[in-house]
């Protein structure tokens, strides 16, 4: 093979690779649009009247996740399954965002931490790497940490809406989450930096709870509910 033939072959390989990446980018753009639509629906829970609408908003989001599953099914067809990590960077951010949205909607429904398996099921993907397109554990953890920031915001807005017991429940949940992350030896730099943000979320929620306890609001609401 001559030098010219060799570089012509390489150019053909590069062109084919670029075509695959362009196909992936197009599908990822549709995923990002759906993720924005889901986020828009969930953002309404931060409004004073939003807490009453949580069940209906979660139901709407569940419907939108059906669209997500179809889009991911399309994405799977754009590259060889064994080359997942070769193209991972194209969908890593949106997958983390979708993991966050899945975690947030599950929390709103049950006030529980979503498992990696549940997120994978919601998105219509695998957990085990060998089975194909899957939810990497670091992408799952990143999504959970994004949710923690959203919950700190929810704790503040709960007080504005007159719900004084919700911040206490969020505080207990976030503290348990923080304890769980402390058990991990995080060597992924972006993930470790995101975990550093959890400390500020814990502090922010603690300040909300402290303010409520000083003013006696949480106890007053608990007493009125019991009556």
Q: Can you give me a brief rundown of this structure?
A:
This protein is an all-alpha fold and 227 residues long. It contains 8 helices and no strands.
Cα distance, first to last residue? 88 Å
Work out the number of β strands.
0
- The H-and-E topology, N to C, reads as HHHHHHHH
Low-confidence region ranges: none
Instruction: Identify the overall geometry.
Output: elongated
What's the rounded overall pLDDT mean?
91
Please tally the helical runs, counting DSSP H or I stretches of 4 or more residues: 8
Q: In percent, how helical is the residue content?
A: over 70%
Residues in β-strands, percent: under 5%
Please summarize the sheet with the most strands.
none
Structural class: mainly alpha
User: What is the radius of gyration computed over CA atoms, rounded to a whole number of angstroms?
Assistant: 21 Å
List keywords for this structure.
single chain; 227 residues; mainly alpha; 8 helices; elongated
Q: How would you sum up this structure, described in words?
A:
- By secondary structure, this protein is mostly helical.
- Helices cover 78% and strands 0% of the residues.
- The protein has helices at 3-43, 54-76, 84-110, 116-123, 137-160, 166-182, 189-215, 217-226.
């Amino acid at each position: 093979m001559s030098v010219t033939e060799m570089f012509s072959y390489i150019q053909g390989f590069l062109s084919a690779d670029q075509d695959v990446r362009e196909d992936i980018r197009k599908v990822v753009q549709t995923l990002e649009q759906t993720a924005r639509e889901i986020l828009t629906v969930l953002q309404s829970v931060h409004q004073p009247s939003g807490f009453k609408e949580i069940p209906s908003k979660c139901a709407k989001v569940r419907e939108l996740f059906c669209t997500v599953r179809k889009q991911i099914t399309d994405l799977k067809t754009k590259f060889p399954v064994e080359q997942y990590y070769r193209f991972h960077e194209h969908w890593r951010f949106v997958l983390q965002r979708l993991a966050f949205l899945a975690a947030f909607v599950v929390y709103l429904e049950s006030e529980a931490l979503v498992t990696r398996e549940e997120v994978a099921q919601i998105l219509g993907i695998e957990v085990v790497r060998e089975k194909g397109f899957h939810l990497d554990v670091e992408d799952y953890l990143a999504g959970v940490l994004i949710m923690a920031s959203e919950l700190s915001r929810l704790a503040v807005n709960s007080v504005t809406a007159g719900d004084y017991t919700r911040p206490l429940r969020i505080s207990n949940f976030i503290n348990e989450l923080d304890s769980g992350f402390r058990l991990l030896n995080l060597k992924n730099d972006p993930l470790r930096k995101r975990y550093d943000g959890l400390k500020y979320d814990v502090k922010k929620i603690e300040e909300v709870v402290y303010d409520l306890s000083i003013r006696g609001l949480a106890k007053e609401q608990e007493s009125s509910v019991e009556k």
